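TA notes, week 10

Several of you asked for a full example with nothing omitted. So below is the full record: C-alpha cells for the whole chain, then the designed sequence directly under it. When grading your own attempts, check the secondary structure regions first.
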C-alpha cells in the first residue's frame, strides 16, 4: 500500500512573481499548497496576475521545460499536470520562469520565498500582496504595452480613440488583493457544505393551506424510488472509484489531502476499489469535481468529470444524516 502524510502536514509555498520587461514593476505575492501541480500553479498565476488564460504557457526550471506536451512531437517537454511543486522546487530560494502567450511572450520571474504552515482561518490559494494592473491580453508584449499606455494617457494621441474602443478605460496602477482573492475563491474553492437544520431554531408557523402544500411536497420527495438511507451524522458511506476516476480527482482537481489521502492507498489485487467518505466529504469532493468540469476547455475531460460528478451526487443523494426534527 502507498501511504502519504496527513492533512496537517500540508505546507504552503509562498512565491513572488514579477512581470519582466515592464516598468514600474508589476508583481504579486501568492501562497499555494505544496502539492499543487505546475498546471495548477499556472491557473493560480492567471487569476492573480489578471490574465485570461487564452494562450499556451510554459514553466522553465533548471533547464527543464514543463507544459502540456504533445505525446509524439514533444518528448523533451515534461508534463506540468503531473509535476508537483514540492518535487520540482524543494528548496526555498529556488528561481524559475513562467512564459505566457508565445506571441506576446510575457516572461514572469518567480522565486520561492518561503515554505509556511497554513492558517486554519484562511482560504488557499491566496494573494497576499501585489502592485499594478496586468496588461491587456494581445496588447503586443512589453513594447506594445508601452505604446498602449502612451496612447491611453494622451486624448490627442492618434490611437487613443481606437484603444478606448478596444478595451475601454484602463488604470495601470489599479490592483486589489481583495478582488484577486474573491476570484481565486470563486475559481478554486468548492461549493459550500450542505446546510444542516438547527434543531433549536424556532419553528415557522404556517397557515393551514401552506401546511397542506408543504406536506404534499414532502410526501412527493419521500417516494420509494427517491427515499434515502438514514445514517448517523459523520458516518462514512462507500464510494466505488475505478483507476481513471481516482486519477481524475488526484490529477485534475484542487481537492486537498484531507479528501485525497485515502485515494492514494492503492487497493490490493482483486480487492474492490471502495473508498469511504462522510456526506460532507462527498459534498466537498463533488464541488471540486464540478469546479474543474466547469473550468476545463477539454471536451473529453469535461464529460469524464461530469460523469464522475453525477456518480458522487448519486451517492450523496442516497443517504441522509440530518438530525430528526420533531
Amino acid at each position: 500500500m502507498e501511504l502519504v502524510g496527513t492533512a496537517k502536514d500540508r505546507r504552503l509555498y509562498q512565491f513572488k512573481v514579477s512581470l519582466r520587461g515592464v516598468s514600474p514593476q508589476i508583481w504579486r505575492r501568492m501562497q499555494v499548497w505544496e502539492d499543487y501541480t505546475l498546471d495548477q500553479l499556472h491557473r493560480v498565476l492567471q487569476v492573480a496576475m489578471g490574465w485570461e488564460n487564452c494562450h499556451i504557457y510554459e514553466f522553465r526550471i533548471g533547464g527543464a521545460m514543463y507544459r502540456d506536451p504533445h505525446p509524439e512531437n514533444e518528448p523533451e517537454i515534461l508534463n506540468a499536470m503531473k509535476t508537483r511543486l514540492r518535487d520540482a522546487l524543494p528548496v526555498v530560494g529556488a528561481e524559475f520562469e513562467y512564459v505566457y502567450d508565445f506571441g506576446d511572450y510575457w516572461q514572469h520571474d518567480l522565486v520561492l520565498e518561503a515554505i509556511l504552515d497554513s492558517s486554519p482561518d484562511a482560504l488557499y490559494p491566496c494573494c497576499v500582496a501585489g502592485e499594478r494592473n496586468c496588461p491587456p491580453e494581445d496588447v503586443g508584449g512589453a513594447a506594445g504595452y508601452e505604446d498602449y499606455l502612451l496612447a491611453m494617457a494622451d486624448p490627442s494621441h492618434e490611437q487613443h480613440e481606437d484603444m478606448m474602443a478596444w478595451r475601454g478605460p484602463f488604470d495601470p496602477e489599479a490592483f486589489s488583493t481583495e478582488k484577486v482573492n474573491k476570484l481565486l475563491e470563486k475559481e478554486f474553492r468548492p461549493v459550500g457544505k450542505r446546510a444542516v437544520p438547527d434543531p433549536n431554531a424556532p419553528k415557522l408557523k404556517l397557515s393551514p393551506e401552506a401546511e397542506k402544500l408543504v406536506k404534499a411536497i414532502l410526501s412527493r420527495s419521500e417516494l420509494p424510488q427517491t427515499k434515502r438511507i438514514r445514517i448517523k451524522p459523520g458516518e462514512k458511506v462507500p464510494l466505488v472509484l475505478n483507476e481513471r476516476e481516482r486519477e481524475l480527482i488526484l490529477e485534475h482537481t484542487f481537492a486537498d489531502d484531507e479528501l485525497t489521502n485515502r485515494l492514494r492507498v492503492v487497493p490490493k489485487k482483486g480487492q474492490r476499489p471502495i473508498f469511504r467518505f462522510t456526506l460532507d466529504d462527498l459534498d466537498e469532493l463533488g464541488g471540486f469535481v464540478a469546479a474543474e468540469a466547469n473550468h476545463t476547455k477539454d471536451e473529453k475531460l469535461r464529460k469524464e468529470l461530469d460523469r464522475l460528478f453525477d456518480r458522487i451526487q448519486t451517492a450523496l443523494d442516497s443517504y441522509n444524516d440530518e438530525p430528526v426534527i420533531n
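Residues 1-7, 220-225 have pLDDT under 50 and may be disordered. Use that as a sanity check on your answer.
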